[in-house]
Design brief:
Layout (H helix, E strand, L loop, with lengths): L11 H19 L6 H4 L2 H22 L5 H12 L9 H17 L6 H12 L1
Length: 126
């Protein structure tokens, strides 16, 4: 505990992918900052945030599986603007990105620290 998470075995493109994913999650979570104290206590608002993050993960999986429609194109363009072409990933990178979608989005949707997610998920995998 307390030691910095070693991510040297994660390919550069996958690290970049996780960074973009966390920026999108942060953007979704930051929208909750505008809630009033009564709103923040409302479970429906938390459910909506969770739904949006999970929807993002579902669309990312669809993109990595080769699906194309309006919503996937918007997300692909967002990644391309941040210098990551999702259609150009190697099979290995694609598999790792899908793994991190499962971990970063579906398992830990509110955690914005990939190092923490790695350390916690390794404990669970041991």
């Amino acid at each position: 505990m307390g030691k910095k998470e070693d991510t040297t075995d994660i390919p550069k493109k996958v690290k970049h992918f996780r960074s973009i994913v966390n920026n999108v999650k942060r953007s979704i979570l930051n929208r909750s900052e505008s809630y009033t104290p009564d709103d923040i206590q409302n479970a429906n608002n938390l459910n909506e945030i969770n739904h949006r993050i999970h929807q993002f993960g579902t669309l990312l999986n669809m993109i990595l599986d080769g699906a194309e429609h309006e919503k996937t194109r918007d997300i692909s363009r967002h990644f391309a603007k941040d210098s990551l072409d999702l259609s150009n990933l190697s099979d290995e990178d694609r598999i790792l990105c899908k793994h991190y979608i499962k971990i970063d989005i579906f398992t830990y949707p509110y955690d914005l620290n990939p190092g923490h997610i790695n350390s916690v998920s390794k404990i669970g995998d041991a």
